[in-house]
């Protein structure tokens, strides 16, 4: 592989650089995982890096033209995927990006061990994991995609690739109702606006129910609220009556029992004549 044609490698920043380029020979056994970071340690970066690298390579192969066969994208002895992730290719990437030279080791022997293909692979996994943590999957895919296929064009931004409106409809598509369905569509919400609370002009929509019950109790009147539910469970309506001493004085309909009961009490309050009448200003005759 021509290392001079390698795509630009995503750069890292912050403490994660030390985690990537510190050899295990400088770590003491049983060192705790750094819970204050998003990545923990280099072992965790290696695991996620291996997974993300494999996925990025498969996506790049999936987009390659002419199209590859499915078996060429799977791990096997003769697959394109295994050719790309071969030990020679991974070593050429590590050497081409000079990643090995940046690793801090505890001894010369440890540094020499970096020539082992498996050590180079683990180093590359760690770097890939760090790129994913800091830059996300889109930046990682752009980088690995260019490694797999230098001729591939970067993906367009999602808002340029898809239309916002569904094809075939000038507006939202109509809802479909099966011709044999026994479920009727929910009734339109055409309830009249609630009457204002005459005793609380600053809060015209405050609750009438406690006010009505208190007034009826003070006047020693018996109040009942028989209720009935109708319609489907997900779109039914409550019908509540307000009966005062056996006489229907109010009725409310609502999507909940409490709302319907409140409307019934509101209507009954006006029907009982308990709402104070507005005082009209005296008429002033013009002076001629």
TrEMBL record:
Pfam families: dsrm. InterPro entries: dsRBD_dom (IPR014720), RNase_III_sf (IPR036389). One of its GO terms (molecular function) is ribonuclease III activity. GO terms for biological process: RNA processing. It comes from the Eukaryota. Signal peptide: none annotated. Keywords: RNA-binding. Residues 200-274 form the DRBM domain. This is Ribonuclease 3. It comes from Grifola frondosa. The gene is rnc_1.
């Amino acid at each position: 592989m021509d290392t001079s044609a390698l795509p630009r490698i995503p750069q890292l920043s912050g403490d994660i650089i030390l985690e990537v380029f510190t050899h295990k020979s400088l770590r003491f056994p049983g060192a705790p995982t750094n819970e204050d970071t998003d990545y923990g340690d280099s072992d965790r970066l290696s695991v996620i890096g291996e997974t993300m690298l494999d996925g990025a390579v498969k996506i790049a192969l999936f987009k390659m033209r002419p199209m590859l066969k499915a078996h060429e994208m799977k791990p096997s002895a003769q697959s394109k995927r295994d050719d790309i992730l071969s030990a020679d290719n991974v070593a050429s990437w590590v050497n081409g990006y000079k990643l090995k030279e940046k690793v801090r080791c505890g001894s010369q022997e440890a540094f020499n061990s970096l020539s082992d293909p498996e050590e180079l692979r683990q180093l590359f996994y760690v770097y890939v994991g760090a790129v994913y943590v800091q830059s996300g999957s889109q930046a990682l895919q752009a980088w690995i995609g260019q490694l797999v296929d230098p001729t591939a064009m970067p993906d367009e931004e999602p808002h340029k690739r898809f239309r916002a409106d569904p094809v075939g409809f000038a507006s939202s598509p109509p809802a479909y109702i099966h011709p044999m369905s026994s479920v009727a569509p929910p009734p339109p919400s055409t309830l009249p606006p609630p009457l204002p609370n005459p005793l609380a002009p600053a809060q015209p929509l405050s609750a009438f129910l406690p006010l009505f019950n208190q007034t009826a109790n003070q006047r020693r009147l018996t109040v009942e609220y028989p209720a009935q539910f109708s319609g489907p469970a997900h779109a039914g309506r409550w019908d509540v009556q307000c009966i005062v001493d056996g006489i229907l004085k109010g009725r409310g309909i609502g999507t909940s029992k409490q709302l319907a009961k409140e409307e019934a009490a509101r209507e009954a309050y006006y029907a009982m004549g308990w709402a104070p009448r507005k005082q009209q200003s005296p008429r002033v005759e013009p002076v001629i």
